[in-house]
């Protein structure tokens, strides 16, 4: 991505992004103006040109600008691609112009180019899945809902390590049902290369805590069911990783400020480990 060395142009660019709205006409007008100012301050700022085109086309679709203004959007998006042909976002913006100019083949070509750059020539931290959703819209309007669905499924995918951390946070907040739901929703499963082994330990601890809760409520049936699930997670883990020591698991996750937080998840494992 080619950015800008002009700090004011960059601030205007960020303000334009934040003001973008398909609901509030005045905010959209201000957004367009911010991107205009950014490109005037730095005519080499590719993404500012791309955004300028994008918000312009959106405004036309909302009938906040006349249809006759479409030619400006084409010029600005083309400028963005010319300035930075290796930035997936510039192809995204040009594709959006072509889509709404009803040139569906050109739109798909732009989106495919953008996705290729997104997948193969873009730092992961700079990958905005919005291009996948926008490309899906293009394919949907071009009569290819199957491709649209696959792109939207990619765009909506939450990485497993987000689920893992959220499940752990739920557990520490004593929201065990949500912890179980989140940890169980991970796409990778025990034995998969990407699966974090300790996930089973967190599941075991959460099932144990639920078992204790049901027991305190006098619900022996649910208490027993959850205890069996806790033990099943522990047993499967120990079969898969026979050399794994409980002390290792605790040490790997023990850098807590408060000892009580470490004990909250480690104590159930100590109880379950040799049962």
TrEMBL record:
Family annotation (InterPro entries): TPR-like_helical_dom_sf
Pfam families noted in UniProt: TPR_19
UniProt xrefs under SUPFAM superfamilies: TPR-like
Highest taxon, organism lineage: Bacteria
Name under which the protein is recorded: Tetratricopeptide repeat protein
Native source organism of the sequence: Hypericibacter terrae
């Amino acid at each position: 991505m080619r950015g800008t060395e002009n700090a004011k142009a960059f601030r205007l660019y960020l303000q334009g992004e934040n003001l973008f709205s398909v609901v509030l006409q005045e905010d959209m007008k201000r957004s367009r103006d911010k991107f205009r100012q950014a490109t005037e301050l730095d005519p080499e700022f590719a993404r500012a040109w791309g955004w300028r085109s994008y918000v312009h086309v959106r405004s036309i679709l909302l009938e906040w600008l006349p249809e006759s203004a479409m030619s400006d959007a084409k010029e600005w998006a083309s400028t963005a691609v010319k300035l930075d042909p290796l930035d997936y976002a510039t192809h995204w913006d040009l594709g959006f112009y072509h889509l709404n100019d009803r040139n569906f083949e050109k739109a798909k070509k732009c989106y495919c180019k953008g996705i290729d750059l997104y997948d193969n020539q873009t730092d992961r931290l700079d990958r905005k899945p919005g291009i996948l959703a926008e490309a899906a819209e293009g394919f949907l309007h071009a009569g290819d809902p199957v491709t649209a669905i696959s792109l939207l499924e990619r765009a909506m995918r939450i990485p497993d390590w987000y689920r893992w951390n959220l499940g752990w946070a739920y557990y520490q907040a004593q929201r065990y049902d949500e912890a179980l739901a989140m940890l169980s929703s991970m796409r990778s499963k025990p034995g998969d290369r990407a699966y974090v082994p300790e996930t089973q330990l967190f599941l075991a601890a959460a099932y144990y805590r639920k078992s204790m809760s049901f027991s305190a409520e006098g619900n022996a049936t649910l208490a027993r069911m959850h205890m069996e699930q806790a033990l099943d997670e522990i047993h499967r883990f120990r079969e898969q990783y026979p050399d794994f020591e409980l002390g290792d698991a605790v040490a790997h996750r023990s850098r807590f400020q408060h000892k009580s937080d470490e004990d909250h998840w480690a104590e159930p494992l100590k109880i379950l480990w040799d049962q």
